[in-house]
Amino acid sequence: MGKFLKSAVIGICSLIFFDSGCATLKITCRAKGVELELFQKAVDQWIKQTGNQHKVEIVTLPHSSNECFALYKQWLSAESFDIDILQMDFPWIGAFGDVLTDLKKFYKDGEIDEADIFAAIKDNMYFDGRMVALPAYTDCEVMYYREDLLKKYNRPVPSSWQELYETAKFIQELERKKNNRFYGYVFQAKAFEMLTCNFVQLIDTFGGAVVEDGRAVVDSQECVDALVLLINCLKNASTRSVLNYSEEEARGLFQAGNALFMNSWPYAWSLMNDPSTAVSGKIGVMPIPTGNKLKGKSSGVIGGWFFTVSKYSKRAAIAADLVKFLTTKTQHKVRAEFAYAPAYKSLYKDPEILKKNSFFAVLSNSLENAVARPSSTFGKDYPRASHEIFNLVNTALTESLEEVDDYKIAKKYLGRLNRKLNRIIDRQKNPKKKKSSEGIFQKLANMLKFSSESN
């Protein structure tokens, strides 16, 4: 457990058992890009709009989504009433839905324009028929590229992964004659959630899938071909440093002018186009390319973050009002100016937004055709399934640097991954064999409680 996680758990648990009676509303928020500043300004507006009668404290989340999930698991398993509003990643709603408040009981009919929200986002707002989440912004991965370098070397924008790979290798070789830090393609291969996103969308472009008809199928030929393509990119058109890269490390390399292609989320657009960067005004955006033109498609994994209200909150009505304010079309438009993608379809036709983010026209089509991570299949076990995915893919990539037979490595690790994922699915069907993670975390909370009382 990380130092941040330990201190946060002890602090929250001490508040659980020794409540000070503080009436301040508490909300969690990430600090990636300018996200924290934008939500702080929105919260300040809400406080002013409601007559300055409420106080709000923003609790900054750790950068790692894995640590965020573990932190939420411990808070909610301990039935903490200290955190009122939780900012949640797209696949977490199924894991925490039973301990989230039904927001509809606080809103009037038609107050939320659900018809204007992308279908995949709207579906994820509900758990067991209850509306437990509203979107802070949505996400869909896209591929950034250097327009100036493609023009310089007379290369077209690639439409397939093979074209991207060949172009990346070709331009990398030529650019490295004057810049030995230049790479054709930079991506995120660190063992964390982003690698699961990258793998899911990659195999979708090849016509593969993680799950079909209730069984894991990541050992299919399409998935093997996809992983081999990624191995080739790592070995011949990238840096081995990507094995430790998250979004920000990849952005730093691309933004410094040291990469031709980079897959990432929309938020990176405004940051990289800041006049102070080496690539400002030189960037193009395309959908994630097709892997297999017969079976696959141009894709992009769907993501995004929601705001939810804990069912243990003692200020649920006030919290729900703040969530409603933070997720209005008006607030989505404010965030869209900084390339945080709106969840509302109509905003992709807004001329002011398109003027600021011309690539939103590409993004809108990607959102309509995006692939979701298999959170609906794994439910509460999704974090475990994702952990298996990103760990085994990262290990396969790492081993490939020392081995020659890429197909052998891909088959070896995808076969192992397939067995592990099917074991998780089988445990869901046979609960008696499934160790209760809820029980483990409740024991932890009780231990912390006992320790606090003993002291």
Q: Find the structural class using helix and strand composition.
A: alpha+beta
Counting structural domains, the number is: 2
Percentage of residues in helical conformation: 40-55%
What is the second-level CATH architecture of the largest domain? 3-Layer(aba) Sandwich
| Structure summary, number of beta strands | 13
Give the terminus-to-terminus CA distance.
Answer: 22 Å
| CATH homologous superfamily descriptor of the largest domain | Periplasmic binding protein-like II
Shape: globular
Q: What is the CATH T-level topology of the largest domain?
A: D-Maltodextrin-Binding Protein, domain 2
* CATH C-level category of the largest domain: Alpha Beta
Number of helices: 19
Summarize model confidence as the mean pLDDT. Answer: 89
What composes the largest sheet?
Answer: 4 strands, mixed
What does this structure look like?
The chain is α+β, with helices and mostly antiparallel strands and about 450 residues long. It has 2 domains: about 5-140 and about 300-370, Periplasmic binding protein-like II (D-Maltodextrin-Binding Protein, domain 2); about 140-300 and about 375-430, D-Maltodextrin-Binding Protein, domain 2 (3-Layer(aba) Sandwich). Helices cover about 50% and strands about 15% of the residues. It contains 19 helices and 13 strands. The chain has a 4-stranded mixed β-sheet with strand order 8-11-7-12. α8 (about 195-205) packs across α17 (about 380-400). The longest helix is centred in the last third of the chain and has 24 residues, at about 405-430. It is globular and about 60 Å long. The two termini are about 20 Å apart. Residues about 5-20, about 435-440 and about 445-455 have low confidence and may be disordered.
